[in-house]
Design brief:
homodimer; 2 domains; five-stranded mixed β-sheet; Isopropylmalate Dehydrogenase; alpha/beta; globular; four-stranded mixed β-sheet; 12% strand
């Protein structure tokens, strides 16, 4: 029931998935108000063996306070779907609803992968150079070094599972490239990244993140969310501006029809719908947060993504990688005590 | 001697200023190696009454450690020019050199305006909606709330002096618009901004900063520097990308000549050279940091900017505004002690 276009887009996305993946053994449970959902299913009767509905009369709103949502809205579609994951009845949950509420119910009901302190958001940002993963993009507004190191380890495993890219490069978002540059957090984090993160290539300045210099950009969630929102803002701003500038010149206006194929290419590349949602890395199960304004295409791609990271055992893989670095956790805890 | 194009651009910028402002009573001292500078002055003999040279044989390099530069390089053009300001022999210093070294020598030799703890960088970012000031853009990578409040107060005074815009709107860069959103720093800062900063309009998300919603964006220097560098990166990235996309389509390629006037408009608007350098707000004198790659145009505009904020008594004005909020400083100091 979450997202601006729910439940229709969510349902249509699922059916698009089935149409394009006829041999898939995936089954889908629509969790939400059955009075709203059931009528929408009639035209997809060909797939009726693969779907079911779990009635959940309540909806978590976008402006709702996320803490303890599992207690305040136990009959919401969000909480009920996360419970399915908790009970092992599904392999993955996809939601386009309230991010904070989804995170808090995932944390409380499913918990984190052993050794992980903070789950993180890791959206894939498409660019003309192949794109990158930004982690954390907003789940943790105040971080310590251990969280950033975990973000690097988890995002690395995720990129391998999601895009099949082996041993991706990892950079630490910073205001300069030298090791000693940055604020207290990045300066403290740098040596731990060197020690614990595969293929850590050092600090990366914001001006270069779109250039494909690294596959994964690690940062705290406050700065990651700022960068993510700024990307959204700057792209729409630049396109509007370009169109205005063109419109200001009668001669440039003639170029609109000529430009159409180029604009279409850019739009396709910038289209986050192509990549579906982003998982909460660190939750001990697959929870995918789709964009609030997700269309059916984005939902379909979120299902594909969930299937892929499930088949490639991302959760287990993250668990193994984190276990290999438990000394980091010990050091951190000793430091907290002292 | 600082900057990629020094000393030629710096000298030519000064002479462009004189040519365009014949009645100006401004006098300029070129501080640097007189063996390099004097030969370049010969073709500008018409202005010889308005210029002089102060010999400084050393140069601070761009990669030099900035701390204590006033001790390690006392004969550098940078330190010698800041000393002129300290001794009251000039009203303003302009440099395109090492930012950290300029800041540290300004701090040590000239000091801050009484009540100010941390000077800040406040560049003007031009957009098609009029542009905004970003403060702090990189001088302070770790901040407390009092610094952010001071950035708001100082940037407000600067915008009035620099652009003549009365009572500009001030926003706090944050990951959400609600008061309780954000990290520890922004949540703590919000009520102090409300209490102490004129025309504070609340939190502003990164996606809206280019839309002209606020005149001044306040943030810590780590995030400000990230945003600043990202703007530089994203603009060049988008333009390259657009050109590549156009090139991929023979029909779109035909549009290049038609697009030229529109591209020219955009380029002009994005041109930071138009606005000269940025002052170190909070230093007890006018020190303007011009971009390292400044051309003569940027230097000329930095001189105009220095003249304007000097005539409009920016330093005195900031001092008065800060004095009106000394309770903020007292509270902060008591809190530090407790």
């Amino acid at each position: 029931m979450g997202g601006d276009n729910a439940p229709l887009s969510n349902i249509e996305g699922a059916f698009q998935y089935f149409k394009e993946n006829e041999n898939s053994s995936t089954e889908i449970i629509f969790v939400g108000n059955e009075n709203d959902i059931t009528p929408l299913l009639s035209k997809f009767s060909e797939f009726s063996s693969k779907i079911s509905v779990l009635h959940a009369p309540d909806v978590v709103n976008m402006d709702e306070s996320p803490a303890k949502i599992h207690r305040t809205k136990p009959d919401s579609s969000m909480v009920k779907s996360v419970e399915l994951l908790k009970d092992g009845r599904v392999d993955a949950v996809i939601s386009a609803g309230n991010t904070g509420a989804l995170l808090s119910s995932s944390l409380f009901l499913v918990g984190t992968i052993p050794g992980i302190r903070r789950p993180a958001l890791a959206p894939f940002i498409p660019t003309n150079n192949g794109g990158f993963i930004l982690c954390d993009a907003g789940a943790n507004v105040d971080c310590r070094y251990i969280h950033l190191v975990h973000f690097g380890i988890m995002a690395s495993a995720y990129m391998e599972a999601f895009l099949g890219k082996k041993n991706p490069t990892v950079g630490l978002l910073n205001v300069g490239s030298e090791e000693k540059k940055g604020n207290e957090l990045t300066r403290t984090t740098f040596p731990f990244m060197q020690e614990h993160v595969n293929n850590f290539v050092g600090n990366i300045e914001a001006r270069y993140i779109l250039d494909g210099k690294v596959d994964i950009v690690v940062c705290d969630g406050f700065i990651g969310n700022t960068v993510l929102k700024f990307i959204e803002g700057v792209i729409s701003h630049m396109m509007t501006w370009l169109k205005e500038s063109i419109n200001d010149h009668p001669i440039s206006r003639l170029s609109f029809p000529l430009m159409a194929p180029a604009f279409k290419d850019m739009k396709k590349l910038l289209d986050y719908e192509e990549y579906g949602g982003t998982p909460f890395l660190g939750i001990n199960g697959i929870v995918i947060k789709a964009h609030g304004s997700s269309t059916s295409k984005s939902i379909k791609n979120s299902i594909i993504s969930a299937q892929k990271i499930c088949e490639r055992e991302l959760i287990k893989n993250i668990g193994e990688r984190i276990s290999a670095h438990l000394d980091l956790m010990d050091d951190f805890q000793n430091e907290q005590k002292s």
